[in-house]
Amino acid sequence: MAFSLFGTKFTRHSGIAQLMDDMNDGLRTPGAIMLGGGNPAAIPAMETYFHDLCRSMLDEGTLGEALCNYDGPQGKNVLLTALAALLRQELGWAVSEKNIALANGSQSAFFYLFNLFAGRAQDGSLKKVLFPLAPEYLGYADAGLEEDMFVSTKPNIARLPDGQFKYHVDFEHLQVGEDIGLICVSRPTNPTGNVITDQELLRLDELARQHNIPLLIDNAYGLPFPGIIFSEATPLWNSNIILCMSLSKLGLPGVRCGIVIADEEVISAISNMNGIISLAPGGLGPALAAAMIRRGDLMSLATDVIRPFYQRRVTQTIATLRRYLPPERCLIHKPEGAIFLWLWFQNLPITTEMLYQRLKMRGVLMVPGHYFFPGLEPDWPHAHQCMRMNYVPEADKIERGIAILAEEVERAHREA
Ligand code: PLP
Predict the structure, then answer these.
(1) What is the number of the ligand 1 atom nearest to the C-alpha of 256?
(2) Distance from residue 20's CA to the centre of ligand 1 (Å)
(3) CATH numbers and ranges of domains, the chain
(4) Which among 102, 99, 144 has a CA at the least distance from the CA of 126?
(5) Whose CA is nearest to atom 3 of ligand 1?
(6) Tens of pLDDT along 93-129?
(7) Which of 78, 124, 161, 390 to pair with 292, CA 20 to 30 A apart?
(8) CB contact at 8 A, 333 and 194
(9) Each residue of 58-74: pLDDT tens digit?
(10) Measured in whole angstroms, how far is the alpha carbon of residue 383 from the centre of its chain?
(11) What is the ipTM, given to two decimal places?
(12) Who lines ligand 1 at CB under 6 A?
């Protein structure tokens, strides 16, 4: 079949497609230990909450209303107004419903935004998206309409006690040239669990404004919801910042609801793109979120249920890792948020791609590190020494996965 250039680019077996295939294979393999994907945990209290919420929304008619109607291209109005009020009240941001648009998942919002600010410009030049700190989210890597649309900068690596380390933005080598149309950072970061500091964020904000380009902050795991953040961090928004949020990590990935908070001009652009690409974003997730805000539950569930759940899981998982793998074998990025641990096997005699293959054969799925360096030249050894695992499954499953990981790491050292 002869596909167009667009078709050829978007039907490629991209990193994300391979990962999704593996996750699916894993799901079909009985007994597989899935430490690879980004699905949020099934937190019993959240499941009960959503169950009760759907039932009462069905009774009061708001669920039926959401199922049976199109919303406008900006997204469901009741959520836009309720969320703007919540952000004004909780964070003091000067936002109204004109500063918010919805999309079918924040993943589709990135596709819109990357191609709105980067790609082929009116004058024929190629504008790029700059990731100021790689490793970065794998889902960005293939979301450009043009080839070579992403550049990123290697991090500074600070060594911490207890076999931990933390990435920092290397401002000395961060170059915002004429060809950069957008700066983008996830905070907390998937895959590392890093939360760039307030100072780093303010410096990026300043750099973006100096260069007259927006700063996109991907807040899929951050504050005020779902609130999966364990370090001190102040949320930041101003009219030059595009903040992307999501209902997914609250426990609702199936509703595919992403939220963009930005200047009115950007919101109007997103609405028009929504209109062309999907008529309107889906209304089910927004109806649920609006009801959660109306009942005053959204913030308290994030603070009292979701954050403590992941905090407990990450503490347990690190303790388990350390029972099987000492710091000489495996360093751990300081877990500051999100639902992943980023492991650094500094002296491993094989690449983590090979380790991944060996683990997969034994029914354990984790993701090798090299996928997470979009826009960086592929030969940086560090990228092949890291691995991402989530800490979503129950503790006993995680322990079985870690035991197999430790065996495979030892085997690789023995065979070297
Ligand atoms: N941003 C980050 C950092 C993520 O990890 C994910 C999903 O795993 C997303 C965005 C996309 O989320 P969604 O499209 O479900 O809103």
Answers:
(1) 15
(2) 13
(3) 13-46+300-415 (3.90.1150.10), 71-295 (3.40.640.10)
(4) 144
(5) 190
(6) 999 999 999 999 999 999 999 999 999 999 999 999 9
(7) 390
(8) yes
(9) 999 999 999 999 999 99
(10) 19
(11) 0.99
(12) 38, 105-107, 137, 139, 186, 190, 218, 220, 246, 248, 253, 258
